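Table S2 (text version). Query chain:
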Amino acid sequence: MVKFSIILTTYNSEDYIARTISSILNQKGLGELFEIELIVVDDHSNDNTLKIIGDFEIKPYLNEENSGGPNKGRNLGLEKSTGDYIIIADHDDEWLTDRLITVIPFIGKAQILTSSYILNDHHKKRLTTIGCSSFSKKVNYYSKNETFLKRLSKSKTGQNCYLGSIVFHKNLKHLKFEVQVGSIDFDWLLNLFQNKSSQEICHPSYVRHVYQTNLSLSEKYRIQDFEFSINCLRSYEKTFPKHVKKGTQRLFGTMGKYYYLAGDMKKSRQYFKNSGLSFINILYMVTSYCCPNFVRNNFKIFG
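Corresponding structure-token output:
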């Protein structure tokens, strides 16, 4: 029987942690087709998170002080994991009840499996299914380095690689997350997919809840992510120069869109100037002078 290790990192998550844990423990086929090892690591919560975790009779690992992000806990979870396959969960994820039973038929066919997911934007009150360009197929196959190069160039096409959708073999548990910032997974994804083939299951596996307070919307986080990712790309510059160039331009474009959405048009234009100036980016620059509010209110820009 296959065993899944689920690494769940928590911090001040009293509003949704019960929903997350319940969705993981109430999987169809549990005990019959697979086992679950739920590893919870708390990053020094100061609300009722630990009490709620205790109500499930789970004893979490505890960081002595807040580390500033989930990566320290993820690394500890990787060290403690004993399962055949590993999944990283965020404390506000909500798994669909058939998540793991859907994975079972593909176990052993690839070291890395991903899936689609449902994005629940609570601020805009909108549900969107992310992943798989065609849901007429059961699975998409990706050849060696295909997904790695897509991620290196920061392409939005190809395999969905959002962290919560990934199921990976225990042989890859030695790959650790950065702890300098403590919340970035770009380098980990590159290490995970480099020289690997992979598969994407064309079926939503969980709901990713996005609130207005999500970390990805924080300016501090965006700057840290940008600087870390730029430095990460530079380490591949000699071997994959074209992909690194494109990835760098797209990082600048992403920051341009972030500041456009935030209403800081001066900063937005500064980043767009280094983004390769595609047709869409030129439109952002032009409209930043005349009608940014119309664009922000009527088009999806960032996230």
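Notes on Table S2: The chain has a mean pLDDT of 93. The two ends are 38 Å apart (CA to CA).
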